[in-house]
Structures are given as C-alpha cells and as structure tokens.
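User: What would this chain look like folded?
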Amino acid sequence: MRSTLSITHTQLKRDDVRSNPCIVEKRGRNMNIRNRSLLAALLITVGVAAINMANWRKTPVALAVSQIPPDLGVNADFHGKQLFPANNPWNQPIDTQPIDSSSPVMISKMGTNISLHPDFGANWNGGPFGIPYIVVAGNTPKVPVTFGYASESDPGPYPIPTNAPIEGGSKSTGDRHVLVVDRDGWKLYEMWSSYPQTNGSWKAGSGAIFDLSSNALRPAGWTSADAAGLPILPGLVRYDEVYNQKAINHAIRFTVQHTRHAYVYPARHFASSLTDPALLPMGARLRLKANYNISTFPPSAQVILKALKKYGMIVADNGSNLFISGTPDSRWNDGEMNTLKRVKNTDFEVVKMGTLITH
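Assistant: Here's the prediction, encoded as structure tokens.
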C-alpha cells in the first residue's frame, strides 16, 4: 500500500500541469470543468489512501494480537482469541434484552443482602483457588477415560497430559474439574470428579467434548462436566482477560444455592427436584443493572463489572449464592477482587428467559 501511494503522489508532482491534460488543462484563466472534477476525484482518492495508511500504521499491534495463537500450559494466555463463535450464547451481549417478569421474585428468593463473591483468587488455604485449565498441542497423546455417567458423557480418549491440573488439587474432595484445550484441533475437553489412575488412564463422573468453532449444544437432557450441561471454560474469569486484554467479552459462570427443576436455553440439564417458580432454573441469565455505579472500583474489578452489565452471568451449577467462577492464579490481586463483594443480589436483574424445560 505504501509503495502505491508514493508512486501516485510522485507521479502527480512529476507530470504537474505540463504534460498531462487529463489532469488539468489551462486555457487562459479558465479551467475545464470536467478535468477539474477528475483532479478533485484523484486528490480525494489519494487522501483516502493516506488516511487508511495512517490508520493502518496506528494499529499493527491489534492486528498482530488477533493472529497470535494461545500459549501452551496451565492457565495459558489466549491472547484475545475467542472461545466459540461470536454468535455463541456465551459471547452474545444481553444488555438490551428485556427483563423477565419474574425477576424481582427470583432475585429476592436468593435472600437478603447477598454479596457477589469471586470464587477464585491468589490465596486461600495456602494457595491460589478456582477452576484451572491447561492448553495442549494437537499431538498430545490421548488416554482412556471411564465415566460414572457414561450414558451422558462423550467417550474418550481425551488428550490429558500428566501435568493436567485438578480443581482443588490432587487431594481435593470437591468437584475436581479438569479442563483441557487442544489448541490445534480447537476442541475443549472437560471432566468432573476426575481421578488419574496408575496406568495413565482416568476415571471421572462425567465428561464432555466441545468443538470451539461450533455452536452445537449437548443433547437435550444431558449433563456435561457442569450440572447445567454447559461448557465451563468459556464462563471463567481469566487473568489474561482482566489484566492483559482488559476486557471480558463473554458471560460469566455462577452458582446459586437452590435451583429449580428446570432449565432454559442454552442449558441442557437440571439438577434439582425443587419446583418453586421463584427459584432460578439452570441457564438463567442475570445482568448487573445498567445504572449501577462502578467508577469507585479498581480497574481490574471494573473489567468484570462491565462484563456483567453487557454479557451477564449464567446459572451453571448448584453452590453458594452469587459465586462467580474464575481461574486460580498467584498473580490475582485478592484485595481488588474482594471489592466485588460490595455488589448485592438486588443490583442484578434476570434477563427474559425462554421456554422452561422440566423433563
């Protein structure tokens, strides 16, 4: 582009008005109107090209970043690469969607003065806490996996490396999620209640494989590594998003203590026998109210709060009320993240839900 622009400009100077009557023709004091128009059009074209070149020169970093593949390793940097297509439910803004008519009742049902809680950080019980993941290369050997809920799990083998982190650590008695991204195949492998075996295989409660270039959902009624039948990783708050990209462009995963015997799109599974219509179903989406003032929060917390306004958060599992999920990382500033606890349940509203599935 630069060489073309240079030649055009030089040619104009070289030809001047002497040797190119198609540009300018001078007859006494009058200029031919037609040729004057041609000159104006040419100058506009050159000007637009110059502006485009200037803009291009201002944005080489942004262009380069979008082409950088995710790093390899535990809690690796995705360099802004989006999980799932842009029109995936996780990546769709809901800030202009209508409010559900039952929103006040469902928000109140959680309790009084319930705080938003970051269920991730740098230090709890002696170390980082949250749900980890690992990014691997496409040639990572796949190992056999057997599932307790085999009828609703995607069969193995899965590309689980020997250093794959387990949520809560190897001795955890919790959910023990294992999340693996195949960077080259662009697939996500997730397991719940995961236990490595001495022969290199794994046993897990359930597992799911997601094509990160597709919007395909689980079969209706199927669980995943999460109770709602949803993928976990695209809903996590990650360090690289908050501090490197300084933007979260997706909805956030969260839990509530009691859910309803129902699910709504994009969830595919419920995990409750309770039928109280005031309870949130799996897949319900909440958003932070647009008029909530976030200016007094630290910049890192504002990144999360902006995402909660634009993309909201999705009910994905039973757990503590308003606990949002993220990755364990020693670099988190727990003091900054804990400012999120100033936000209460009444600062949220339920986005209008679709059809309730109860079977």
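The mean pLDDT is 86. If you want, I can go into more detail on any region.
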